[in-house]
Each structure stands twice: as C-alpha cells, then as structure tokens.
C-alpha cells in the first residue's frame, strides 16, 4: 500500500470507537493546520538533548511544555460545548464517557479538563506519557526508531536509518 502518511495503523475497530477517534483526529488535524510547519531548529535541538534511554531500555523524554496562555479558557468552552451535545444525544454521551473513563485509567494523557457530569467540579489532568496530537510526537517517534536501529542492529543500522530518514 502506498501512502504519503508518516504512520498507518491497521486492525479491526468498533464503530463507536471509530467515531470517537474520527472526532478527535479531525480536531487535531484542524489544530495542526493552524500550527503547521517544521519544528524549529532550536526546539529540535532541545528535544534531541532531552531524549534519554533509561536503564530499562525505555526512552524517556523531558517534555517541552508550552505556556498555557488562553488555552484553558478554550478547553473550558469546548467542555461546555460537548456537555450541551451530550444532552441532545444521550447515546454520544454514553460512548464518550466510556471512552474518557478508559482513557483516564490508562493515565497517559496531556493536560485535560474533564468531569463526569455538569454537576461535578471540573478536574485538571496532566500528561504522564506522550499522547497522540502533541506537537513533537512524530519527531520523538522517529528519533526513538533511529536510536533503536543504531543500538540493536549496529551492522544493519545504515540501511534501517536510510529507510527511517527518507
């Protein structure tokens, strides 16, 4: 299969999961359009320095957090918007709440504000692992693969790196 996408995922997916995934990815794509472009050289160098390999052969990265600015206000507005949609479409509410409970259980999200109902206080959750949609994810994934090629296959790493760096 020929594609211009950097990553392709295959496998069976439930319709409800696919719908939620589509909504999230569409929002991320729209957000990326606003911030399109290559990561600046300065940021790239900072990310390169931040990449470490821990003793358990796990890649650890000091995440380059940006200042929040007015994004919390935007997130609050979006949360209220989606809560209004939940009152209009209870089935969407059920599916989305199930998704969020599972997502929160995984404990690997960016900064998210969430609550189970409009009558409970809003909670602020923070990133513990790199999540989809964060700006440096593709760069960090590439760097991890390149490092693995060098580390695990020193003799074949030239060919692997040639493929990875295309």
From TrEMBL:
The keyword Coiled coil does not apply. Pfam families: PET117. Transmembrane segments: none annotated. It is found in: Mitochondrion. GO terms for cellular component: mitochondrion. Keywords: Mitochondrion, Transit peptide. Belongs to the PET117 family. This is Uncharacterized protein. The lineage of its organism: Eukaryota, Metazoa, Ecdysozoa, Arthropoda, Chelicerata. The gene is AVEN_138595_1.
């Amino acid at each position: 299969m020929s594609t211009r996408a950097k990553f392709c995922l295959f496998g069976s997916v439930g319709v409800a999961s696919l719908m939620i995934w589509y909504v999230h990815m569409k929002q991320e794509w729209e957000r990326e359009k606003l911030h399109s472009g290559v990561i600046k050289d300065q940021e790239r160098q900072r990310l390169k320095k931040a990449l470490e390999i821990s003793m358990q052969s796990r890649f650890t990265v000091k995440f380059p957090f940006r200042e929040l600015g007015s994004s919390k206000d935007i997130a609050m507005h979006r949360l209220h918007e989606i809560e209004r949609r939940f009152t209009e479409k209870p089935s969407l509410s059920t599916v989305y709440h199930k998704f969020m409970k599972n997502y929160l259980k995984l404990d690997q999200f960016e900064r998210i504000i969430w609550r189970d109902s409009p009558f409970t206080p809003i909670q602020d959750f923070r990133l513990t692992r790199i999540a989809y949609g964060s700006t440096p994810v593709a760069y960090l994934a590439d760097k991890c693969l390149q490092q693995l090629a060098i580390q695990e296959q020193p003799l074949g790493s030239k060919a692997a790196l040639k493929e990875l760096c295309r």
